[in-house]
Amino acid sequence: MKHDKFIGLDVHKDTIAIAVAESGRLGEVRAHGTIAHDLHALERVMSKLGGEGVTLRVVYEAGPCGFVLYRRLAQLGIDCTVVAPSLIPKKRGDQLKTDRRDAEQLARLHRAGELTAVHVPDERDEAIRDLGRARADAVGDLTRARHRLKAFLLRNGYRYRGKSSWTEAHKRYLRELVLPLPAHKAVLEESLLAVEQAEGRLQRLDELLEALAPGWRLYPVVQALMCLRGFGLTAATTLVAELGDVRRFDHPAPLMAYLGLIPREHSSGGSRHQGAITKAGNAHARWMMIEAAQHSRMPPKVSKELSNRQEGQPEVYRTLGWKAQTRLYKRYWQLAQRGVMTAKIQVAVARELTGFVWDVLRQAHARCPQP
């Protein structure tokens, strides 16, 4: 007789705890043991658990170990699901947590169909995503290095009086600054060196992204997204790599929830209370959406750069781009005139911009050849 076995894996850097749930609502759930985190060891376990008429359905949580296990099991023809850890149902009163219990819980919930799968990107898509995240890390390092330098100077009574920071005039002021104490001078020189190194790293990553993006299979999708104002090559490539195929979202609302741009809500009976945004899901994609939404404070205009990006693209993308500009500009200033704080305006506009992004990407993915 044919039947299913639901395999729960609690994956760690060095070990994998395994549990098995037999098919059927009241089927046995048992711990199978713990093995080393090794693909050959996992293959041997799968061959033992499988057999004539047995279909293995494996599940494990998304985490720092990535999707190596998923891809290897897919090569072996074994059904595997990677689930979101934050969406796993948990008993409020359960205070016991071990690897064995976690594996058993995964197997049990997978059999019940209570787990939410995450999108697993292609290896080449994940490589571009990692490059975009490395650039985001470089931006963070540069920002922190600059803040540390300015904080050091402010503590010692030095404050730049120019209009803008980190311009050529500001950098010339920092290089010509003379501090009386040798220790302070050493701190200044080291801080300037850290800023220069961070700027160089960011420039190199930008150049790599510009060089590798045109050879990516989803570059036509990136070009389509660049028809919207606020999405240059870097922002568009990063967002497409983070989101993957948006056709898995049948409506913009689930995509907004995936980006964590919807408000928290606690409603009961006749009361309804909404709070700050959930900030769930993909933080890198949410950051790019909010950065792009800041362009909506400017009047609608097709600049020279935007016109060059739209050249040769289908008319539908240009139409959506102009519609997004006019709608979001009106929305931005309606909220501003009501006295809403700028950060909230940017989030609200980013939430509406998500709808236009979803529409453009959905059409672009339909035109893009599948791997």
How would you briefly describe this protein structure?
The chain is α/β, with parallel strands linked by helices and 371 residues long.
Task: Map the helices and strands.
Blueprint: E1 3-11, E2 15-22, E3 29-36, H1 39-49, E4 54-61, H2 68-75, E5 79-83, H3 99-112, H4 123-155, H5 168-176, H6 182-212, H7 219-225, H8 233-243, H9 252-258, E6 263-268, E7 271-277, H10 283-293, H11 304-310, H12 315-337, H13 342-367
Parallel strand pairs: 1-4, 4-5
Antiparallel strand pairs: 1-2, 2-3, 6-7
Helix pairs in contact: 4-6, 4-8, 7-8, 7-13, 8-10, 9-13, 10-13, 12-13
Task: Tell me what you see in this structure.
With 371 residues, the protein is an alpha/beta fold. The chain folds into three domains: 3-112, Nucleotidyltransferase, domain 5 (2-Layer Sandwich); 123-215, no CATH class; 219-367, no CATH class. The protein contains 13 helices and seven strands. The strands form two sheets. A five-stranded mixed β-sheet has the order 3-2-1-4-5. The longest helix is centred in the middle third of the chain and has 33 residues, at 123-155. It starts with a strand and ends with a helix. 25% of the residues are buried. The mean pLDDT is 93.
Distance between the termini: 36 Å
Number of domains: 3
What percent of the residues sit in helical stretches (DSSP H or I)? Answer: 40-55%
Number of strands: 7
Q: Note the main sheet.
A: 5 strands, mixed
Give the overall pLDDT as a whole number. Answer: 93
Order of SSEs: EEEHEHEHHHHHHHEEHHHH
The strand line-up of the biggest sheet is 3-2-1-4-5
Number of helices: 13
Q: By helix and strand content, what is the structural category? A: alpha/beta
Overall form: globular
Backbone CA Rg: 26 Å
